[in-house]
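Sorry to interrupt, but I need a hand with the structure work. Please put the record directly below this note.
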Amino acid sequence: MGRSKHLITAFTVTAVGAALLTGCSSDDPDTDAAGPAASSPAASPSAVASSPAPQESEATEYVEPAECASLGLASDKKLAGKDLAACVTAAFAAYGTGTEYMLNADRSGTTRFRVGDDPALAGDVDGADGSRAKNSFVSLGGEEWIKSDGVWEKSDSKEAMDAELGGKYRTLSDPQVVSDIVGTFATWKVDTEKALISLENGKDTHAWRITNAAHFDYRGAEMTEYILWIEDDGTPVGAQSTSHTGGAPKTVSQHFYDLGEPVTIEAPAM
């Protein structure tokens, strides 16, 4: 997985447990990681309406953050949650931009994101009836827009967006959620071997599979398993959460790719 470009996935985030749709996590790390890639849609170039002033990032070189270098990733190593979360936050910030594919039960979507002083999101999400990329959303400059039934409308809040898109999709698509969840639990463990991750841009990479050492609570949900996949240099490539809120287990999977590549995120023409 090339690392020549940069600017900041992939599986995250607020109120995750109540947000996720029913699903099950595999015990096989390679199976878990490959799951989203099998059914991922291509990113839609028409996620937002055209605007006379698109905001496009310029790619720059990725330099491994000190927060990631200090982790000393190695087989079977234990990591403090606050240190791992700091690495994820710093890595996304170092890249600045990227694309995320999310699989929430049988509903999937693709989101372009920008992090830093001017964070933004724009994506397409399957409809409740299974229609591919039926709905779109934009989060930019503290404002939210959503397109359903082919019409763009201003949204009152992130919560209203979640209700419209389903599965807390707007909330979960924010890469900062990954750091939020990881930082909630004290101890994480690196697997003995790296896992092969097949990303939606057609590239494969081998990444460390890091999991929670025990169940933990995240905003009212029991997080039974959270998996984070990161490369040697701290690059986040995937995440998967399985949670319980009193019912069946709910699973959300994410892949992060094209990190550091330019993205265009603009307010839709109304």
In short: The chain has one domain: 16-42+60-264.
